[in-house]
Amino acid sequence: MNQVLYVYSFNDGNKSMKSLLGSKGANLAEMARIGLPVPPGFIVSTEACNLYLEKSEGLWPELKEEILNSLKHLEAQTGRTFGGRSPLLLSVRSGAVISMPGMMDTVLNLGLNPATVEALAAETGNRRFALDCYRRFIQMFADVVLKVGHHHFENVLTAARKQKKVKSDAELDDSDLEMIVTEYTNIVRKEKGSDFPLEPLDQLFLAVEAVFSSWNTERAQVYRQAHRIADSLGTAVNVQAMVFGNLGEDSGTGVAFTRNPSTGEAKLYGEYLLNAQGEDVVAGTRTPRPLEELKEDMPAIYDQFLHICAVLENEYREMQDIEFTIERRKLYMLQTRAGKRTAPAAVRIAVDLVHEGLITKDEALLKVDPDQLEQLLHRRIDPKAKLEAITDGLPASPGAASGQVVFDADRAQELAKAGKKVLLVRPETTPDDIHGIIAAQGILTSRGGMTSHAAVVARGMGKPCVCGCEELHIDLGKKVFFIRGEQFAEGTILSIDGSTGRVFRGEVPLIDPEFSPEYYELVGWADQVRRLKVRANADNPEDARLAVEMGAQGIGLCRTEHMFMAADRVPVVQKMILAPNLVEREAALAELLPMQQADFKGIFREMVGFPVTVRLLDPPLHEFLPDRDELLIEVYRLRCENDPDGSLREKESLLQKINAISEFNPMLGHRGCRLGLVYPEIYRMQVRAVFQALFDLIDEGQDAGKLLPEIMIPLVGHRTEIKAMKRLVDDTATAVFAERGKKIEYLVGTMIELPRACLVAGQLAEVAAFFSFGTNDLTQTTLGYSRDDSESKFLPFYLQHKILEVNPFAEFDREGVGRLVKLAVEEGRGARNNLKVGVCGEHGGDPASIMFFDRIGLDYVSCSPYRLPIARLAAARAALGG
Amino acid sequence: MNQVLYVYSFNDGNKSMKSLLGSKGANLAEMARIGLPVPPGFIVSTEACNLYLEKSEGLWPELKEEILNSLKHLEAQTGRTFGGRSPLLLSVRSGAVISMPGMMDTVLNLGLNPATVEALAAETGNRRFALDCYRRFIQMFADVVLKVGHHHFENVLTAARKQKKVKSDAELDDSDLEMIVTEYTNIVRKEKGSDFPLEPLDQLFLAVEAVFSSWNTERAQVYRQAHRIADSLGTAVNVQAMVFGNLGEDSGTGVAFTRNPSTGEAKLYGEYLLNAQGEDVVAGTRTPRPLEELKEDMPAIYDQFLHICAVLENEYREMQDIEFTIERRKLYMLQTRAGKRTAPAAVRIAVDLVHEGLITKDEALLKVDPDQLEQLLHRRIDPKAKLEAITDGLPASPGAASGQVVFDADRAQELAKAGKKVLLVRPETTPDDIHGIIAAQGILTSRGGMTSHAAVVARGMGKPCVCGCEELHIDLGKKVFFIRGEQFAEGTILSIDGSTGRVFRGEVPLIDPEFSPEYYELVGWADQVRRLKVRANADNPEDARLAVEMGAQGIGLCRTEHMFMAADRVPVVQKMILAPNLVEREAALAELLPMQQADFKGIFREMVGFPVTVRLLDPPLHEFLPDRDELLIEVYRLRCENDPDGSLREKESLLQKINAISEFNPMLGHRGCRLGLVYPEIYRMQVRAVFQALFDLIDEGQDAGKLLPEIMIPLVGHRTEIKAMKRLVDDTATAVFAERGKKIEYLVGTMIELPRACLVAGQLAEVAAFFSFGTNDLTQTTLGYSRDDSESKFLPFYLQHKILEVNPFAEFDREGVGRLVKLAVEEGRGARNNLKVGVCGEHGGDPASIMFFDRIGLDYVSCSPYRLPIARLAAARAALGG
User: pTM for the complete prediction?
Assistant: First the structure.
């Protein structure tokens, strides 16, 4: 026998070898290693896959030889022969390093042909069983290897059931199945122009190639992109001796989670079907039975299974998702893996595992994906609302969702792109629907159970899902659906509650989320571990209060312009902008002063003891002015109509003013400190409002030492700018202090949003006491992407065509922008030892970005209040190095 | 005597001490040192000035003491007493390190009061002379020290002449002058509320303070900003014993250039007045006589002066601008300095000095300011045009200029800001008019000679100027002017020819410049010295031809979009952009292909043997579409009128399309290679057009080896972009080569316009064969300045208020953008040894920027053809380290 290069026996592997053997293969090997009942088999490695994809020349002779050698070994282990009289049948399954739908997945019963099917019939004494296997094999092989759509075969089955007037395939007999097999092979000949491959070795090699090729299907690529999985990993192929759950009522197959994947409750949670093969459970074509019932059917098997679940949880120190088959009252394990779970479940399981002594607190922190925590913040249906469900199904993935009903994934994607909220409603879902599931607010299916495709994928994505809603009937042809006989058109708005399984008409009232004790425990551990501080971006007292509740250690960005946007203030702001001279502008500013002062008072009151970074006015002034297009048309109209109401001159003058202020590229225009320099009276008003607000609080009895204002100057690029602005702040503060006869400590710092600011950070730090990286704008300028434009124009194309791996506005561009930030931090700290450095762009709430910010030594990240739990956990994980 | 800290005798200095003694003082000391006749004096140093301005506490006791000591020494040298019976009178002059108008300049006859004036009268036996000195002193002192406007005094003089019915001040007698002196002192008392200071020491100290303070007048600051002179230099004060040119017809005063400052001809060029003081010549109040006439008046003095001029040229190895005074047939030198000159004169003088053996070729290159060479490119009046001059004056500064007549500097500046071309027309100009001279196309004065203020300043700036146009009469009150009796209103358009002195009605036809043999000799020397190659930005065959004539060694930037802008092409381009699908877009592109191919053919034909960098389409597509505002109104109109001609739907659809393509920040939007990636068919067409054009030339017999195309991809920020674009170019080239059965060598490179491109330059250089820095866009993104917006919005404010020292679009920002460029060059070359690196932004034609580009090792700069002489000289100077 030659040296093993690409093909490994289960006996050669263990759970640590995922990158070589794929996740499924490594776990099968591990289960075999610890003595669990696993049907024997071998694994074609991911290295073989990568080489195959690189060569593009099919399977090469040495690889085929290795597979043949492993096959011989398997024949010896099982005492059966591939294609022989006591036929060895195989299950062939894809097995990526990180498990992902959208790939070939599974072909069962491989090795059957007219000769071996008769041998199997003779051997088992069950011709119906043998024919059922053959029919399943042809259907699966044709679908996943030969790419003949499975609806062709479903139509044949449906017709056969109809003709025989039976409800389930189980009621079809030998002759029905013989006829079905004949029709199946005819379909393949017609669709492919060639015969179904009958030689078992051909079947095997074709299946291996199909697994390899499935790595690069569009579906798989979309999935990898959505989940940030590297294209270079490749997939392994698991080849395993078949065991049969469809050998009669003493056989069966099932799936189970060792804990509840929806709530995290430490209770076995599974489903099974008797006389069935694996795909029957997962595909949702038959609604399976709860695992508890197995206790009655086969108590010994049930106990053995419970024991194995405990062993696996101990072994993996993690909740497991398990597939099993019972062949004539013998239990076989077909798969184990970490189970996908909702965010509440993830939190509860991690905390429970700590309490059970299986993992440490640090490990618990690393087990919960921070991105997933966002789900905890999902609003849910107001329990006080008097709602009547029009039907219900299985509570497959918690959360509430509303949207217009669509029946197919393409349409769901299309409408979602157009900004609509949609609910994907299907009899069942398949991996082909993945883009529709991504696009939908929630999923509702009429068939399938808690472990069906829809349920598993929805939970993985944190989308609400109701499954197996049996009162729902969908007529895909007529594009209507019926619930309890009532007809609804596609496009009807429904709501679902994935936590209870209920379905409602129209939209429903939602309330804010509450957090579980486990959540508080986990983020408490995170707070103990993390080095990075977390702050929130908040512009009003309500957000400030929420921020504190969510664990903020300060406000990292208070955008003062949002205070200008209120309906009652816009006229005053416009008066200020359009003022023909300083006197009138200062008069308008005097009107704004008490308003802004009241805002600041409210915010600082919430944030006693915490620093508050107040950013002075940033956006270009024309953002506050009336819509130019409308005015343009209005002026035209007034001219045409000879100025009916005498307002033409005023409108013309306004238009002229707007034209004068308008900019080709406002993002790069007269904004930020450029406004503060040209119109210092605006910034002076804002600074005065801050300090007067602080004195108001002191007058109310607040401790001055606990008021921590940090005045932030936006869009600085030159030292001269921050110098002039710091002088303005200092002068204004000094004036207010003189009026009040008292001082308040404060800092003046700068936002870093321009590449130049990073490049001269040492100079800026001589003046600024803190830097706050505005990574949104810094990304825009460094990459030359206008966020407003690119996200609707070329960015989707860039992501789809892999010009960009990720959206740089969602995940921080470490290579480009990151290099500038790192440089600015180093040189800023070089010039001022105790420079405070933080991030206040949206990346401050992105876990992957937080990892980077921790590594380069920032002091804090600031994000929206709702992302604080994510930031706290991500910061902890960063501190733990992972 | 105390140690000398701040005050230096002429005997203590020499010409190398300019930074301490100011330029004027150092040169006076030098002339004294080499034995030329200089009235004795002393210098209060620039250090004293800086300390004075820093302290803001007036002159301090130690400084006063030093001045008194020097004054005593001067009394000893001259045998006269300050304020005494044989009175020492002083001239007090400012003396900056780099000479600049707009500062206090000069007070003559300081030390006079009712007592000393009588002593002077007695001593000289010339009471009229003494009174004339006194009158001048009060007038100058009041003007420059006490800030009492000189028009007050002019009015008194005018009234006195009128009353006496004489034309010149020289005809006023003792009693007239006595009366004038009385009125002058009354004016001072009235305007200042205090008496004219009569104590000579007070006069001196006040004058010294006035010189110091004049450093920070707005006028001086504007001048420094325009000439990039550091604020920190400060000015010295020159205090010198008076000699008198107004002692009668055996006395006089004059100025001279050792060579012709307008043409460079090696011939003494000067003017003088008898019985006059210095300001009479320079201020243009009396039109002086050509220096040649002095040969007749005082042949010995004339010969002595010629001799001194030769000595000074030998000493300074440079053309000198000299002031002198003759007191009773004795010659005194009052100033020498490098003379301001026109660009043709600068070139000729530098080349002549080399031929005369006074300087080396390298020194000649360093003597000519590259920025000034732009003047050589000024268009001049077509000599073939049949033009009739309406009057003429002195040809004070060459070149032709047209514009509407304005009478004051403020108005000139105002109109120029509004985009108007103006001609500043004044009786004479003063340093107060400097902003108007900057703003005007040219200057026309009715008084003053070739060395008047207007003439000197205009020559320094390279502006056309006609002086002393005696037939021109200006009525400033009525805002009209008369020429030969004909009345013209302000705003009339005139043209002047500063090379001949002629004045024309309206605009005149201009022709392209021709270059002198000296020019060719000088740039030839530059080409031998420089390391940097120079290329031109050219988009059509005419510009390419011009580029070669101007010395381009290739085209560094051929903007292909300019080829889309021709009137006959815009409809096809619009069809291409608005195409609803690929088929129609490719049909439109097929129409564009032969047009673009013909353009490329024409360009490459001009550039045989030189590389041509072709940049693929760069601007956002909506730049080619109709004006959105107009369309918006049109659609509104059609809707109101119920679609009278049935075009509403089409217009609506066009508007919708434009709206869809429009961007908030097009600068950061869908442009550059982002277009090439999303619409690869556009770039494929362009690349095909390039190669088909090259094959056309080969078919015509061109040597394929001499066609050097370089395809440049714009706006790259990620490696994936340049990789995909290089593949597109390679594939298209390969396809054309296959069709023609022949290959052509070519390079694919990238423009570097984004900070990110600089930060990942190493990655880009793995794919790109060359980098061309688009420093315009790189400045926009690095600084976050939209050029279109900032230059009309905050940038003028920033420059005026010193937030920015220079306009970063004119002079490259070394500290910010430069750091990125340097990094990109280093890391790009690190990844690809033979990476070609150039600059194609406008900075490629700016001497200060070229210095930097040379230092960081770029291979070439590319600029507009007209800036090539500047770039060639600047590159040579950079290589010479200066």
Answer: 0.79
